[in-house]
Design brief:
Blueprint lengths: L5 E6 L4 E6 L6 E8 L5 H5 L7 E5 L3 E2 L4 E2 L3 E2 L2 E2 L11 E3 L2 E2 L8 E3 L1 H7 L4 E3 L3 H11 L2 E6 L16 H4 L5 E3 L4 E6 L5 H8 L3 E6 L12 E4 L10 H10 L6 E4 L1 H10 L3 E17 L5 E12 L8 E7 L5 E6 L4 E4 L14 H15 L1
Parallel strand pairs: 3-4, 4-9, 5-10, 9-12, 15-16, 15-17, 17-18, 18-23
Antiparallel strand pairs: 1-2, 1-13, 2-12, 3-13, 6-11, 7-8, 14-16, 19-20, 19-21, 21-22, 22-23
Helix pairs in contact: 6-7
Protein name: Carbamoyl phosphate synthase small chain
InterPro entries: Anth_synth/Amidotransfase (IPR050472), CarbamoylP_synth_ssu (IPR006274), CarbamoylP_synth_ssu_N (IPR002474), CarbP_synth_ssu_N_sf (IPR036480), Class_I_gatase-like (IPR029062), CPSase_GATase1 (IPR035686), GATASE (IPR017926)
Catalytic activity: L-glutamine + H2O = L-glutamate + NH4(+); hydrogencarbonate + L-glutamine + 2 ATP + H2O = carbamoyl phosphate + L-glutamate + 2 ADP + phosphate + 2 H(+)
């Protein structure tokens, strides 16, 4: 094993874990959360929804297949979900300094260093995850000797404004014109829409997209507390007065819910995994889904003209909503996966079908 520097992970309750660095050697602070996926760390680390968070992997060995070639296709990276790493830091049990994969171009450690993101290994992630499950996600900080830092709560600021585009950007030249409200969009959402003959117009989170002539509106995933994204909620509120099709994912689900008049709340430790089971309400159909969120819609506050669309089988929390008469629906999970199962990608087809019906009116 290489010579490595030691550092400490300190939780807000005073718990201390000592580990070894395999990333960038700097002190950072954020919200400590865990995810249970066995693979897919290049996609997860580049997911903007992880902004402000120190990510703990429960799968014991990370890094064995390196990091893929970051070539672009259709104006976006092929193997990453954005153009940079968004996690504040990565915590693992066993880091593989040696990697092997046909598409690997560098090690995970080198990639973290290039992005100036710390990574710690030799941490008892099982014990750490038990704490987070029992007490809930909590603030934490990684401290290197001689570099003290204060705790930082990312949920107290509008993280969406940090990750959203600043400009209107167009992808593709398909028949269906879709406005994508970028609250921290994952690239695979754009890929899924492009494969379905869409022209995707990506706009900033606080852009009044109602002024754009389009066939449908898409509300993206993103980080943080949906209550902090009021300007988007107000613009979505204008859109639901019409009948133009709307689809949302993750934070987009929460924003659509709040625009409809529902409340949102913070989950104890959130859902971050590839294996969350969700039930399509009114049926016996259960799907395995990829998820990454810390907030949820309170079903009890949905107005009468809205209803839950999916429910989490594990804890009965909301996993999606739909309007009873208009072509609006959203999911708390990620139908586009990346990484994770693609069992529910058909929901993009449902969105496009709604657009086709709308255009015939």
């Amino acid at each position: 094993m290489q010579n490595v520097q030691k550092a400490k992970l300190i939780l807000e309750d005073g718990t201390v874990f000592e580990g070894k660095s395999f990333g960038y050697d700097k002190s950072v602070a954020g919200e400590v959360v865990f995810y249970t996926a066995m693979t897919g760390y290049p996609e997860s680390l580049t997911d903007p929804s992880y902004t402000g968070q120190i990510l703990v992997s429960t799968y014991p060995m990370i890094g064995n297949y390196g990091v893929p070639n970051d070539r672009e296709e259709d104006g976006i990276f092929r193997h990453f979900e954005s153009d940079k790493i968004h996690v504040s830091a990565l915590i693992v049990s066993d880091y593989s300094f040696e990697y092997s994969h046909w598409n690997a171009m560098k090690s995970l450690g080198n990639w973290l260093k290039e992005n100036k993101v710390p990574g710690l290994f030799d941490i008892d992630t099982r014990a750490l995850t038990k704490i987070l499950r029992e007490k809930g996600s909590m603030l934490g900080k990684i401290v290197f000797d001689g570099n003290p830092i204060d705790f930082y709560d990312p949920n107290e600021e509008n993280l969406v404004s940090r990750v959203s585009t600043n400009d209107v950007v167009t992808y593709g030249n398909g028949d269906h014109k879709v406005v994508l409200v970028d609250c921290g969009v994952k690239n695979n959402i754009i890929r899924c829409l492009l494969r379905r003959n869409a022209t995707v117009i990506k706009v900033p989170w606080n852009y009044d997209f109602n002024q754009i002539e389009c066939d449908g509106i898409f509300l993206s995933n993103g980080p943080g507390d949906p209550a902090m994204v009021q300007e988007t909620v107000e613009n979505v509120g204008k859109a639901i007065d019409e009948v133009k099709p709307i689809m949302g994912i993750c934070l987009g689900n929460q924003l659509l819910g709040r625009a409809a008049g529902a409340d949102t709340y913070k989950l104890k430790y959130g859902h971050r995994s590839h294996n969350q089971p969700v039930l399509l309400t009114g049926t016996d159909k259960c799907y395995i889904t990829s998820q990454n969120h810390g907030f949820a819609i309170d079903d009890n506050t949905l107005p009468d003209d809205w209803e839950p669309m999916f429910v989490n089988v594990n804890d009965q929390t909301n996993e999606g909503i739909r309007h009873k008469t208009k072509p609006f629906f959203s999911t708390q999970f990620h139908p586009e996966a990346s990484s994770g199962p693609v069992d529910t990608e058909f929901l993009f087809d449902d969105f496009i079908d709604n657009i086709k019906k709308y255009k015939k009116q």
